[in-house]
Automatic annotation (TrEMBL):
<keyword id="KW-0812">Transmembrane</keyword>
<feature type="domain" description="DUF218">
    <location>
        <begin position="51"/>
        <end position="180"/>
    </location>
</feature>
<dbReference type="Pfam" id="PF02698">
    <property type="entry name" value="DUF218"/>
</dbReference>
<protein>
    <submittedName>
        <fullName>YdcF family protein</fullName>
    </submittedName>
</protein>
<dbReference type="InterPro" id="IPR003848">
    <property type="entry name" value="DUF218"/>
</dbReference>
<keyword id="KW-0472">Membrane</keyword>
<keyword id="KW-1133">Transmembrane helix</keyword>
<feature type="transmembrane region" description="Helical">
    <location>
        <begin position="12"/>
        <end position="32"/>
    </location>
</feature>
<dbReference type="InterPro" id="IPR051599">
    <property type="entry name" value="Cell_Envelope_Assoc"/>
</dbReference>
Amino acid sequence: MTRRSRSSVVRGATVFTAAAVVGAIVASTVWVEATARGHVYGVDDAPAAPVALVLGARVENGAPARYLAARVDAAARLVESGRVEVLLLSGNGSGDSGDEIAAMTDDLVARGIDPARLVADPFGLNTRDSCLRAARTFGIARALVVSQGMHTARALAQCRDAGIEADGVDAPVAVSRPAAIRQFGRELLARPKAAATRLLGTPPTVESPPTDAVRRALELVSR
C-alpha cells in the first residue's frame, strides 16, 4: 500500500469514527430530551411523590461539595414543603472523595430532617445503577429524581427506562464558566454510554436482594 493510500485509509477511518461519535451523541440526546420533556421541574413547582431519589456526587472533607450540596438542599426543601415523604439517598458509600451517603445524611439531619425519612443505598455507583436499584432493590414505582442541569434529564430518562414513573427536580448550582463547560462536555459523552447500557440491558454493578426499607419508612412517617 502506498503512502497516499494509507493516508486515505486513515482519513476515511477518522471521518467514520467522528461521524459515529456525533451520531451516537445526537441519537442519545434525542432519547434523553424526548423522555424528559415536560417532566423536569424546579424545587418549588415539583409535583408530589412518595419518594425522592437523591443522587450522590463529590464529597469534600466529609461534606457535600457544591453539586451535592445543592441536591441535598433541594431534597430537604421537598420534604419541608410536604411534596415528598421519604428520601432514598443513592451514591457511592466508599468513593474516592468520601462517603457520599454519610455526607448527605449528616447534612439532612443537621437541617432537621427526621432520620426516619432517610433510606440509604451505598451501591448507587452511577446513575444507571441508582435508577435500577431504586426500582429492583427498593421497589420504587413513583419518585422524583433530584440532580441538576443536563444530568437531571439523563437521570430522569434512565429512571423511566428502569420502570419508575419519575419526574426530575433541578437543583441549580452556581459554577464558574470553565466548570460549566466541563460538565457540559462530560454530559454529552455520558449520554451515548447511557443509551448503550440501555440497549445492552447492562445490570447494576451491585445487585442486592429486594428490601422493603422504603415501604417501612413510608409507613413509619405516615403514622
